[in-house]
Amino acid sequence: HPLDRVTGRLPRRLRVAVDWIVTIVGAVAIVLAIKAWVVNPYRIPSSSMESTLHCARPAAGCEARFSDRVLANRFIYRFRDPSRGDIVVFNTPDRAVSECGAGGTFVKRLVGVPGDRISMSGGVLHIDGKPVDEPYLNGSDRSNDFPVRKLGADHYFMMGDNRGSSCDSRKWGPVTRDDLIGPVFAVYWPLTRLGLQ
Fold first, then answer.
1. C-beta neighbour count of 197 within 10 angstroms
2. Higher pLDDT among residues 169 and 9, named by residue
3. CB of 40 within 8 A of CB of 69?
4. Over 70: is that where the pLDDT of 167 sits?
5. In what helix (H) or strand (E) does residue 20 lie, and over which residues does it extend?
6. Which of 53, 42, 15 is nearest to 166 (CA)?
7. d(CA 161, CA 76)
8. CA torsion 124→129→133→137, rounded to 10°?
9. Is the per-residue pLDDT at 11 higher than 90?
10. What is the Cα–Cα distance from 94 to 46, expressed in whole angstroms?
């Protein structure tokens, strides 16, 4: 064992201690690497994605006792383009703080991809003038219509499934690909909600 060559002359107790320290440091490094580049957990803090993803009562509009905890794939967008319909973890633009009172990392549905002409009228989302079937919507107030917006070559339009309670790209604009962390692929907590997205 390579470590034995370094610690071979040390007393047995010290060799065991060094072995444990190296093992623990190695395990922590592996976990941190996985979180940084492969998979990372996130908590759903608001009702913007109800009832696809739950937040915890007593927060306004939340349906569950516990907030969903989800896993996001941090590397898949290196191999494929983001797709319309993905539920995505992303970093918000600075304008989100002034428009929503919060910023940082959000979880929303990707509804518009580069080149789309996106609009909403009568509560119905339109892409390139055609209505979009959105079976995941929860029936909340969708009266927040907006005129046609043409998305740039690196722009993605994000909206919550609970349209009446979501502060999203309608207010702070699209995000860039560099802002996208990765798609949500599973709910891991609470156990009653365990499953793939």
1. 14
2. 169
3. no
4. yes
5. helix 12-37
6. 53
7. 23
8. -30
9. no
10. 19
Written as one letter, the residue type at 12 is R
Tokens of 2: 């390579």
Peptide bond into 58 cis (omega under 30): yes
DSSP helix/strand/coil, 166: coil
For the stretch 50-67, pLDDT in tens is: 989 999 998 888 989 999
The region, left, alpha or beta by phi > 0 then psi within -120 to 50, assigned to residue 173 is left
| This model's pTM is above 0.90 | no
Phi/psi-derived region of residue 66, left when phi > 0, alpha when psi is between -120 and 50, beta in every other case? beta
- Which pLDDT score, from 0 to 100, does residue 23 have? 83
**Tokens (6 digits) for 181:** 């962390």
Catalytic residues: 48, 108
Q: Quote the CA–CA distance of 189 and 195 in Å, as a whole number.
A: 9
Q: In sequence order, what are the beta bridge partners of 90?
A: 106, 180
What is the side-by-side strand order in the sheet with 124-127? 130-131, 124-127, 117-121, 146-150
Residue 24 corresponds to which tokens in the numbers above? 């623990």
